[in-house]
Amino acid sequence: MLKITDLHAQVEDKEILRGIDLLVNTGEVHAIMGPNGSGKSTLAAVIAGKEEFEVTKGSVVLNGEDLEDSAPEERAHKGIFLSFQYPVEIPGVSVTNFMKTAINESRKARGLEDMPANEMLKLIREKSEMLEIDRKFLSRSLNEGFSGGEKKRNEIFQMAMLEPKLAILDETDSGLDIDALRIVANGVNKLKSKDNAVIVITHYQRLLEYIVPDFVHVLHNGKIVKSGGKELALELEEKGYDWIKNEAVV
Q1: pTM as predicted
Q2: Which residue has the higher pLDDT, 250 or 35?
Q3: Mean pLDDT throughout 239-249?
Q4: φ, ψ dihedrals at 223, nearest 5°
Q5: Which tens digits make up the pLDDT trace of 142-188?
Q6: 246: pLDDT confidence band, cut at 50, 70 and 90?
């Protein structure tokens, strides 16, 4: 599904990614771990096409299509979903209306008409019940006054509604207490299937107790310096990142 080859990227002439190679197949969950400043969030942003990052070498290919010239909204329409570490507030726009707009824009990009109102309401009802979201929550302004857990749950709701091919969760566990973490992780697990893939970016192993990865990759200084199974996350939890830094060839 996703093939990243020798990816180099910079921002304001500062090189951050220094040759990333990564293959993600459908049905897989990949965890990206690493210390602050290693390039984790930059990798997520580059895959999603955020324009402040300049790709200087390499490629990002989704389902055989090179994304080099695709804008962020085009990548979203092609099936890439990015959950932000710090979701923005949009006063005056309800969660429901935001989702209606997002879904219909996605349909429009595929040459489809707007989803009929009764189908939209049915879909919203099904997904909100699946994620245990209160109906009152859906009428609130997007992220305005939301707790950290509510913001993250709302993003998982967006993911459920949009049904992306590739979901990238950028430190979605940041600031969550254990109950909120379980709720968010349960939502992700319910949405996983043999037809989609998930990349989880995190500092800590605790999220991976709930969203169990098939592969764990460690970033250091803009490169993947070690890959393994879920046991690698446990090793990092025990030893920290210093031993990885010592092993890495910089």
Answers
A1: 0.88
A2: 35
A3: 68
A4: -135, 150
A5: 877 777 777 878 888 888 898 999 999 988 777 677 877 887 888 88
A6: low
Two tokens at 74? 């085009």
Integer Cα distance of 168 and 196 in angstroms:
11
* Residue 168, amino acid: I
CB atoms within 10 A of CB 89: 12
**Angle (CA) 185 26 5, round 5°:** 105
Cα separation, 80 vs 212, whole angstroms? 21
Q: In CATH, which superfamily holds the domain spanning 2-249?
A: P-loop containing nucleotide triphosphate hydrolases (3.40.50.300)
Residue among 108, 107, 9, 11 at smallest CA distance from 59: 9
